[in-house]
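step: validate -> pass
step: tokenize input -> pass
step: predict -> running
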Amino acid sequence: MFKSTFFKALFIILPAIILNPVFAQTDTTNPWLVRFGATYVQPLDDSDGVIGDTGLGLIPGKDEVDVEGELGFTFSLSYAFSSHWAATLLAAAPYKHDINGAGVLEGIDIGETYHLPPSLTLEYRFNPNGKIRPYIGAGVNWTWFFKSKSNAALTNALDGIVGGVTNTDLDLDNSFGFAANVGIDWSINDRWGVNTSVWFLDINSEAEVYVNGNLATTVGVAVDPVLYTLGLTYRF
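step: predict -> pass
step: emit ->
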């Protein structure tokens, strides 16, 4: 629902912005802007089944995995090539997410993963000469998953169902998708300011589940996180 509404809004707003004649205006005074601050990542996750009807088929009933939220640090570098337009690159410290079971897997600590979500957006800035400058952007995201692993709880759960399970493992594929952001910059002086922003990243991965060293099933996982950030800005 969130993704559909967001995309429809961008589809309506961005063409009107692109046709705005101020696109041709240039601003060579302090075109670089760094934003940095604390970010909470809230996954709007969904997944296929792991061991139920759509997964290994070991037990009846629907099961899913839940990717837990995480607090971390993000920063971005933005270059304004006109008064209203800028290109923004988002980066972050690695995020660690716990993966828990839902449905018939409720209560099972399945595993964990780390990810880095660099994103590049084309950004339109309203009121570029004011102290309060809202903006909206759209672009692309590439997400790298690493250090993914299962926990003993998943191994024990599978062993209790079928027996003979001595080890399990997880591996998540990297993802390429859509990115969008909205935010507000408040100027404190010519250099420093305060920023608050919301990012949406379209992250869809395939999680490979290994049992006793062999690939047992592949699970589609839509992470689709929303990033809420509060921080500072520095212009140069």
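step: describe -> Residues 5-9, 16-27, 57-61 have pLDDT under 50 and may be disordered.
step: cleanup -> pass
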